[in-house]
Each structure stands twice: as C-alpha cells, then as structure tokens.
C-alpha cells in the first residue's frame, strides 16, 4: 500500500515538473503558429491593405520575421492600444508588435525585446496657431492616443497642459482640426502621415524639435525567458544580415512617401 502511494506521489511530481518546464517557445513550435498582437490602425506599422484586405506594415513584417525564423506560421490579432498589455499577460497573444514604446513602468509589466524601431516623439499644431515649440504648447490642450506611452509622457513633460486621450491617432487629429485641442502629440511618423493627408484649407505643421526619442520593442511575457532569448537572437541576426534594414527601407525609405533615413540599429533598450 505504502509502495503504491509513493509511486503515485512520484508520478504526480513528474507530471508537475513537466508542466513547470513546458514553456512558450515549446508551445509555439508545437502549435506551429505565432499569435501576434498588433494595432491594425497605424500606417505604416500595421494597417489594412485596401487591395488585399489583409493587415500589412512594418510591425506585421517584424512578427512574420520572428515566425519564419522559428519555423512556424503567423496569425495576427488586432488590439486597441489599451488592450495590448492585458491581452499579452492573459496569454491571448504570444507577442506584441504594436507601437510599444519602452518605459520603466511598462517594463515592470512585460518584457521588451531589442529596440526594433526608434521613434522621435513630436508635437503637431495648426499652422496658424502661432505655437513654435513645446514651451509654447505647455498649458494648452493636447491630444494623444489613450493608453499610449505618448499620453503618459506628455502629461509628465507638459505638466501645465490638459492632455486628452483619444482612441487612436486619427481621432486625435480630428480633434486638432476641429479645434477641440491645440496640439497633437505622437510619433514623428504618425504625424507625418496625418500631415500628408491634411487638406490645403486646414494645414498643420510638425514642430521641429522632438520632445523625446522613444525606443520600441516587441512585447513578451516576463516569465518566458527562453522565448525572449530566441526573439532577441532573431532580431540580432536580422540586424547583422541586413534583413532589418531592408524592412525599414521597404516601409519608410526613399521609395515611400516618408523618405526617412534609418538612424538606429537593433540593440538592447537602455533602461
């Protein structure tokens, strides 16, 4: 009887050990699919292609790069800005590629990969506003995407301003055009895209000096150390091979409307 109980106990411990040691990297490979959380509303990072009706963009391609190197297919789950971290930590997605700016506070909740994009964060105002720099904007109404690091940081930096959160950058831009706010705060690229779309009758201008530069990383669960290491190794290899630079050029380079030069390399985020 005692021997049977000991055997059952040992088998239970073995099963428990198997559960403990099973991790996300193994799960993704066994499933054959990487589930990537992305926004789907942020051109050219992740947005719906009008011709194919599929989600495309720089973030989308970064997730596909990771999936390809892991030897699995990729699927995308569209998330709101506010839902990114909860969806990841509830294991409804495996990884985030969703305009995810690094902050010490956010790094307490999730793990960040190497920086795969560095984003100057700037202010945009109506051209006739007379506002020339951040100091002039401080004390005015400022729009930002609700739940984003941009919203949090501009509240801290422009402490006299009333910062109003909107569901996405397009909604914030509409508020600027409707004069509900005096400025919009977002990444330079988001603002350039909105500026290109602005009508001649309502021109906007992006203030030249960035408020700060923000490193973006792929988001992962902090407990999944093997998965984190694998993703970082893939990103390092993409930098060395030139794949990362090619993706940047595809979405932001000389043949695009943005015509940006890559001023960063994939590297650990200082923090």
List keywords for this structure.
271 residues; six-stranded mixed β-sheet; 12 strands; Bact_solute-bind_prot3; 41% helix; D-Maltodextrin-Binding Protein, domain 2; alpha/beta; transport; 11 helices; 2 domains
Describe the structure.
The protein is an alpha/beta fold and 271 residues long. The chain has two domains: 26-118 and 214-252, 3-Layer(aba) Sandwich (D-Maltodextrin-Binding Protein, domain 2); 119-212, D-Maltodextrin-Binding Protein, domain 2. The chain has eleven helices and twelve strands. It has helices spanning 2-21, 24-31, 58-70, 84-89, 104-107, 134-137, 149-157, 169-177, 188-197, 225-241, 243-252, and strands at 33-38, 41-42, 46-48, 55-56, 73-78, 95-96, 111-126, 141-145, 162-166, 183-187, 204-206, 212-220. Strands 7, 8, 9, 10, 11 and 12 form a six-stranded mixed β-sheet that branches. A hairpin with a 6-residue loop joins strand 3 (46-48) and strand 4. It is globular, with a radius of gyration of 22 Å. The protein starts with a helix and ends in a 19-residue tail after the last helix. Residues 1-22 form the signal peptide. Residues 33-255 form the Solute-binding protein family 3/N-terminal domain. Belongs to the bacterial solute-binding protein 3 family.
């Amino acid at each position: 009887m005692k021997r049977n109980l000991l055997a059952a106990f040992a088998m239970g411990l073995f099963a428990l050990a198997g559960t403990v040691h099973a991790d996300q990297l193994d799960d993704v490979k066994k499933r054959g699919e990487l589930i990537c959380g992305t926004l789907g509303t942020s051109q050219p990072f992740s947005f719906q292609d009008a011709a194919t009706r599929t989600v495309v963009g720089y973030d989308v391609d970064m997730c596909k790069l990771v999936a390809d190197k892991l030897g699995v297919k990729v699927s995308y789950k569209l998330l709101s800005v506010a839902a990114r971290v909860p969806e990841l930590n509830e294991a409804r997605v495996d990884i985030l590629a969703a305009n995810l700016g690094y902050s010490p506070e956010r790094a307490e909740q999730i793990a960040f990969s190497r920086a795969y994009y560095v984003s100057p964060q700037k202010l945009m105002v109506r051209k006739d506003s007379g506002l020339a720099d951040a100091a002039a904007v401080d004390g005015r109404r400022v729009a930002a995407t609700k739940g984003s690091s941009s919203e949090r940081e501009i509240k801290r930096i422009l402490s006299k301003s009333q910062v109003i959160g909107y569901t996405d950058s397009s909604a914030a831009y509409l508020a600027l055009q409707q004069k509900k706010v005096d400025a919009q705060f977002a990444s330079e690229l988001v603002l350039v895209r909105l500026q290109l779309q602005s009508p001649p009758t309502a021109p906007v201008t992006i203030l030249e000096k960035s408020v700060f530069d923000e490193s973006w990383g792929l988001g992962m669960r902090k407990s999944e150390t093997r998965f984190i290491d694998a993703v970082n190794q893939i990103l390092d290899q993409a930098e060395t091979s030139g794949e990362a630079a090619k993706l940047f050029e595809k979405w932001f380079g000389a043949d695009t409307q943005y015509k940006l030069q890559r001023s960063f390399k994939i590297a650990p985020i200082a923090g």
